[in-house]
Amino acid sequence: MKTNLLSVILVTMLAISTKAQTGVYVPQLAKFDTAMRNLMTTYNVPGGQLAITYQGRLVYNRGFGFANTTTQDSVYPKDIFRIASLSKPVTGVACMKLFEQGLLDLNARVFGPNGILNDAIYQNILDPRDTAITVRMLLQHRGGWDRNISGDPMFNAYNIATTMGVSSPPSPSVVIQYMLAHKMLDFTPGTQSKYSNVGYCVLGRVIEKITGQTYEAYVRDNILTPLGITSTKLGFNLLSNQLPDEVNYYDYPGAPLASSVYNNSSAVPWPYGGFNLEFMDAHGGWVASCEDLLKLVCAFDRFNTRPDILLPATIDTMVKASVYDPNYGCGIAVNANNNWWHLGSLPGTSSEIVRNGNSKLNWAILFNTRDQAGNINSAMDNLVWNVLPSITSWPSFDLFSNTTDINEPDIRNVINIYPNPTNNQLNFSAQTNVELRNTIGQLVLNKKGTNFLDLTGQPAGIYFVILTDDKGQVLQRSKVMKE
User: Fold this and answer.
1) What is the mean pLDDT of the chain?
2) Distance of alpha carbon 13 from the chain centroid
């Protein structure tokens, strides 16, 4: 009986959480709301974002569920998530910008005395084939590493640090030194295409060598800031270093703990110290919102709606498929249907960007979990595609613009709720529609257009206050205590 009651409580609370939506409510696009809620319920997703651009205009930008399940904080459109491998298109754009400026030769060799990374620390090379690796090969995952054969060094931080005699976690350059000095390649560079995180780690160091800046500083100054992207940053391993407006990350129910990358003995949740996000910078380290991701995608989508940050010829080079993989260019997946995309996945993170070339549509989806079986990636990829046939018109406004006449109901901290804890009455700093629910999701009180709730007679304990607008859209959620 206790088990059944607990299941009811968990399902009820999940159903409540996925109904929480923030951002502009767009009636003609409401089916995207439904699709997101359904997916999040199916895969036990605490929080997510979905944003869509049409002809260069941001027409949909909403948050769903919880950024923090403990404090019941909602996800808002400005919140930022780890984006995992969506970092690769960021690095790809940065490399193509340097190529366009004549600062980076895509056919240049990376290692060896005549390579870009010809520093002394990279000269201890076990496999002579390493010196044949070019920049283009790294961008197209043809560098010679196959993680299905020899594993992925980007998830082997502690052992690499131990072998190299440094404290863990090691730096990206130490990982590269380790691979050169201790590992043979899995295939001759250029002859196959095998998805490689370490290849993009190397590209981050190539960018640093050419520009004289850190990887993050170059991308920030030359790609992000010119596009008006200010919240996107490199993330950190631990919750104690969480960035402003960053969501929390959750592993799937029942997930095992990991050995800490710091000492290999402490048991930690995978999203917080089970892997070293900080040396994943160029292949998996960025933290961003869907809106920021779409500002970037719109800057290389080759549509004639918003200015691109790269010339058309440069974009054509970027999206030209490798001869060894018809579905991958230089940092972006492509297909014959004129669509470009990239998926990302880490413990606690699922992400995707898509460019629908035939409809001048782009979209981005972010979740703060991933499932055990990996089915969420396929569901996430299908979500927008499945809804599109039912959309008959698109809004004319642009949420990218500060002058839009759409009033976004993203009112975090606008309505204050006090006192909390309270003995009898809850007050609101503005009139609002209020639902009061108990911890198993039952509606206790419901009042419209009020600035207070009388809790006299209600049992002591924890309650959830849900503030809604006149359309029933959730604006704000808070946890309160009745003493």
Assistant:
1) 91
2) 24
Strand partners, 461: 482
State pLDDT tens for residues 55-81.
Answer: 999 999 999 999 999 999 999 999 999
Q: What is the CATH number of the domain that holds 468?
A: 2.60.40.10
Q: Is 284 exposed, middle or buried (0-12, 13-18, 19+ CB in 10 A)?
A: buried
CA angle 32, 57, 52 (to 5 degrees): 25
Lowest mean pLDDT among 113-127, 213-227, 353-367, 440-454: 440-454
Q: Is 199 helix (H, G, I), strand (E, B) or coil?
A: helix
- Domain membership flag for residue 398: no
Question: Considering the domain boundaries, does residue 453 fall inside one?
Answer: yes
Token digits of residue 102 = 């004549």
pLDDT of amino acid 2: 38
Residue 321: pLDDT band by 50, 70, 90 thresholds? very high
Range of the domain at 423: 417-482
Assigned token pair, 103: 């600062």
DSSP 356-377: ETTTTEEEEEEESB--SSSHHH
- The predicted structure's pLDDT at residue 471: 65
| Helix, coil or strand: residue 443 | strand
Residue 242 belongs to a domain: no
pLDDT band at 52 (very low <50, low <70, confident <90, very high): very high
How would you label 239-273 residue by residue, b for 16+ Cβ within 10 Å and e otherwise? Answer: eeebeeebbbbbbbeebeebebbbeeeeebbbbbb
* Per-residue pLDDT, 159: 98
- CA separation (Å) from 164 to 128, 158, 173, 259, 444? 20, 10, 11, 19, 60
